[in-house]
Amino acid sequence: MGRYLVTGGAGYVGSHTVLALLDRGDEVVVLDDFSKGHREAVPSRVRLVDGRCEDPKALAEAFGGERFDAVLHFAALSLVGDSMRMPLRYMAENLATLSAVADAAVAHGCRKFVMSSTAALFGFPERIPIDEEQRLGPVSPYGESKLMCERALDWAERIHGLRFASLRYFNAAGADPEGRAGEDHEPESHLIPLAIDAALGMRPPLTVFGTDYDTPDGTGVRDYVHVTDLADAHLRALPLLEERSVRFNLGNGTGYSVRQVIEAVERVGGRKVPHVLGPRREGDPATLVASSAKLRAETGWSPRFPGLDEIVKTAWDWRVKHPKGYAGAQRAA
């Protein structure tokens, strides 16, 4: 049994990773300020510290004299569109948050750190699928902020011996198959929940941004990885930190277009997805698909939910049972 600090553990990916840790018998402490996350997403048996990662008092309370086997860091600003409006805030806050947590980890004798990174590091990729050897070239302040964070961890390893895993997510999707957690963002920017809400009449018709891409049906193609599979990858990366730091691209390895996602939601939910066609969004590549070959080879990771319909079904089921998201829910045991 291990002991882990999870920053941002009340958020979407963080809360599912907390569940994965608890399911294997680990002890977990969560540090979150609930600016984006939900208190109800964190099981009641988890010690929960309400505070910002940059706050020395909150960090002192979180570490609380405990010896953690590793820190898993999810707390960050993460909307590409917002970062284009607030570039300096994104770069300053994401680097400051990571630096404060990593510094506290070093000070408390913890030398293992897992960072939630992003496919936005690659900008417009040179080839598909995207492997770890491709040139890094962020085209958004969000992507740039995560690249800065990776570089900061390089220095923390060099100087303090802090080994780290940087997991570069593509598109997290779905919900806990047991219904214990799901996706609840406001504003929501992810395609699958937006399509589900449109089908359920809970949001206006979905806007399809761009129909003239060089893809089979003209709409953008993305790689969707189930959030539970993503959480599993974090746990599988931890043993590698005994000897070295690692960087992994984390996706399903299969691309699906916007139209294919709409069709999947309609199949799973038995309802039409109202949608309108719109122009491209600036900065959107036609195709983003990950190569997870390195992750698979070095950790044995393989997605339990590789199919789009499987992913959509877990998201649909959670949304139907939680039409208001976590509002009004109670913390589970």
UniProtKB/TrEMBL annotation:
It holds the Pfam family Epimerase. It catalyses: UDP-alpha-D-glucose = UDP-alpha-D-galactose. Keywords: Carbohydrate metabolism, Isomerase, NAD. The keyword DNA repair does not apply. Residues 5-251 form the NAD-dependent epimerase/dehydratase domain. This is UDP-glucose 4-epimerase. Gene3D superfamilies: NAD(P)-binding Rossmann-like Domain (3.40.50.720), UDP-galactose 4-epimerase, domain 1 (3.90.25.10).
